[in-house]
Specification:
Shape: globular
Strand order of the largest sheet: 3-2-5-6
Structural class: mainly beta
Low-confidence stretches: none
Number of strands: 6
Radius of gyration: 11 Å
Distance between the termini: 10 Å
Strand content: over 45%
Order of helices and strands: EEEEEE
Largest sheet: 4 strands, antiparallel
Mean pLDDT: 94
Helix content: under 10%
């Protein structure tokens, strides 16, 4: 459905980066759950940087249609 659900303890920020290194989404996160609407991005592979109080995690997401 184009929505990515993110859950992490003490989330502070979510950043989505496309395959050529451009930031296409950058938002503050509050709490432990967030949703990112990926339909507005083109088809391809994206990295989601999840920044928390305890550090950084990076996840890969593929957008297909």
């Amino acid at each position: 459905n184009g929505i990515v659900n993110v859950e992490a303890l003490s989330m502070r920020r979510l950043i989505v980066i496309n395959a050529i290194g451009q930031t296409v989404y950058d938002r503050e996160a509050q709490g432990e759950k967030a949703q990112i609407e990926m339909n507005s991005f083109g088809v391809g592979t994206y990295l989601i940087r999840i920044i928390t109080e305890n550090g950084l995690t990076i996840k890969r997401v593929n957008v297909i249609r």
